[in-house]
Amino acid sequence: MKKDKINNIFMLIMFFCLLAYGMLALIRTPKDISYTENRNLNKFQQFTAKGFIDGTYQSGLENAFTDQFVGGGRIKNLMNKNLSFSRYMTNVPALCKDAYISVGNGYYFWNCNEQLVKYPQTNDKKDIKNLEKIAKKYTELNKKIDMYYYYISSPVNYNLTTLEPEIDVQTFMKKHIHGEYKFDYLKFDSSEELLDYFYKTDHHWNYKGSYKGYKDIMKLLEVEEIKTPVEEIKFDFEFYGSASRVTSIYEYAENFAVYKFDFGQYDTYIDGNKSYYGAENEYFNGRYNTSKEVNHYGIYYGADYGEVMFDFKQDKKDNLLIIGNSFTNSVNKLIASGFNKTYVIDLRHYENVFNESFNIEKYVKEKEIDKVLILMDITYMTGAEFDMWGDK
Amino acid sequence: MLFSSLTFIFIFLPLVLGLYFIAKDKYRNHILLLASLLFYSWGEPKFIVLMLISIIFNYIIALIIDKKRDKKILPKLLLIFSLIINIGMLFSFKYLNFFITNINSIFNSNISLFEIALPIGISFYTFQILSYVVDVYRKQVPVQKNIFALGTYIAFFPQLIAGPIVRYSTIAEQLEKRKCTLSKFTDGLRRFILGFAKKIIIANNVALVADTIFNSSTVTEYSWVIIIIALLAYTLQIYFDFSGYSDMAIGLGKMFGFEFLENFNYPYISQSITDFWRRWHISLSSWFRDYVYIPLGGNRVKKIKWIRNIFVVWLLTGLWHGASWNYVIWGLYFFVILLSERLLTGKLLEKLPKIVKWIYAFILINIGWLIFRIEDVSILKDLFVNLVTFKSSDVVEFLRMNYSLLDKLPYMIIGLIAMFPIYPAIENKLKKHTLYKYIRDILIMILLTISICFLLSNSYNPFIYFRF
């Protein structure tokens, strides 16, 4: 009986130790960001009666607890990685040749681990409706502003086996967006060519893809002066992109490579403050972090902000407005070098920074913009947050 | 609130346990009631009012029934009134739209459906309330004059949302007097953790296999092999999910000093469907036996009425599970098999080898779960056709598109092993050894830790486009 008592006390002690560990999340300083999941972490919120009645307090508390759990990020990474053995068996030629193999979280290896991509989703009626809504507004805009559209054909929109797009943007543009405007897109003839323009484990275009895009865009914008790279630099560290971070698959990567350009003199303003955009010089001088979770695309080229302005002080040239998402980060400075002032707006952040919705007509007038470039990939087009008119 | 949440494990449970064991005996029911109301309102903040009204209404009705026993008709009328209100409430929330949809279908009418959310646990607590009122009427239990004690019985959070359906007679004495001992508490804790692990580790993972296949828009195109895999996965999912919750409920009850009856007894080792229903959701089948089957006459009536009685029980059992025709079909499916075992095949079954009987029962149970899982009857029909005609499809393409499901195969294997009573056999053999107990408890705590890791990993929610 005494032995049983000791055994039961032992059990209780273990249980209370585990409880105490879990409850640390309630008392420690909350963390802000998860670099693994690429998002802001939920924090414990104050109790409100309204929040309790509509259930948001409860879901918020659970989300905050899981996000702030001590060691939670590492645990999630470990669980996603170590509990998935199928990811190590995706190289079976009979299964994987010119085919997708799923690795979970919506990601697939293409062609025997050549690329880690998202599989194009079946057309969602909501996506199409959203596109049609956007199309009407662009049509109106084309009547008032000098508009240019460049569509980045990214693998996420294409079935790499058949090269059929999930949403045929080119046809959509012709059918639904009217008026005077110029349109071009990133062209490719084969899945190999398309994938050559994109990172193996990231959804962004790589240095080859973005440079091709830059040349297309300058031609579209009727700018003859095209910058050529001074040098092609392949760094000696590997780049694990967004797909790696989501799937925790770090077994496949590529060396991070860039084209080096000579930009001359220019000023940069980020969200209205004079600053520097990107970390090219740091990288060229060997000052970079080679940890697997580092997003070299974002750090080298520059991150997403509400507004970035490049002033190349070329008064005789046009002012340009570029609206896009993170795909612009690798080309915005290049494009800007062919203009006087170039404003780059990311609608996902603009409102948070400037406390007002972005109104394109008002902005174009205020900044004396001559040309507007919409630099879009499929997520830009189907994302509800990319509504640029101030009437959300 | 769910048991399988960090909020429950690390905030609610420690808080309630702390307050409960600090408080004097006479306040413990109050603490449990308040905790239970908080637990319920956590998930259903609006429907807590319904639960409170239900408690007060049935408390008053039972008091009046008890007080007016000398009257001939009044107690019966009050009972009927209580049944109408309680069942009426259940009908309104759960079955009204189903009823209207069928009326519209039959009569080509256009009656609008109501936008009603189904309060969580209403099927469970309504049956508990009904059992109390009926048992008071039948004088099988003394009326509960303390509304807090009655409220604790009705709303008690361990079994409120997913059972087991606890009879008032089981718990009446324990509400007044129960013993909380260290060994009872730790036994309850072990039971809770094992249930937690069953749900989080096995059920949630095999569910992904079942859901990926059954929820696919192209499910009717899948081959019989893929459907069988999905069905096996679902068979395991429903067992480990439901029995896991029952284990957690029974374990939690024990931690607070209550002893509940068992709800599952390794149903997948059954050697007949009759045997299966003595092992599966025992609290429900015994409820229907005591409150529907026996009042209708049970088997002490003519054969035709007896068949009617079984038919009614299984019709209601099917409907209890959901407001959809597939549940009705599922209930009647078991009606046919049970009747057949009683009248035709029972004697034959007894002569067969155990393995054959087990295969017979397991196949029938699985077919039942297919009916239970697929609400769309036309899809159900197509799946049956695929199974019996051994339809083939591109399994390689399915494997490519769902490669990560391979990761769930180990959980299916664990589930297929754990559905047999291996743990009780080990426990019985080794429980006298002290070393075994320590190893067992360390393993149980490891299970809890792993389960919490699974909970955390389920919240993994990467956002691709946010920062870069």
Short account of what is shown:
Chain A is of the alpha/beta class and 392 residues long. Chain A has helices at 2-27, 49-53, 56-68, 72-82, 93-96, 125-144, 169-176, 191-196, 207-220, 242-247, 280-284, 296-301, 332-336, 347-354, 360-367, 378-382, and strands spanning 33-34, 39-40, 100-104, 107-110, 115-118, 147-151, 158-159, 164-165, 182-185, 231-239, 254-260, 267-270, 273-275, 307-311, 320-324, 341-346, 371-376.
Task: Write up what this structure looks like.
The complex is a heterodimer of chains A (392) and B (468). With 392 residues, chain A is an alpha/beta fold. Chain A starts with a helix and ends in a 10-residue tail after the last helix. Chain A has 16 helices and 17 strands. Helices cover 73% and strands 0% of the residues of chain B. Chain B has 20 helices and no strands. Chain B has helices spanning 6-22, 25-43, 48-67, 74-107, 122-137, 147-155, 157-160, 168-176, 182-214, 224-255, 273-279, 282-293, 303-321, 325-351, 354-373, 377-388, 395-401, 409-418, 422-430, 434-458. Chain B is globular and about 70 Å long. Classes of the chains: A alpha/beta (392), B mainly alpha (468). Chains A and B meet through helix 1, strand 2, helix 3, helix 4 and helix 5 of A and helix 1, helix 2, helix 9, helix 17 and helix 20 of B.
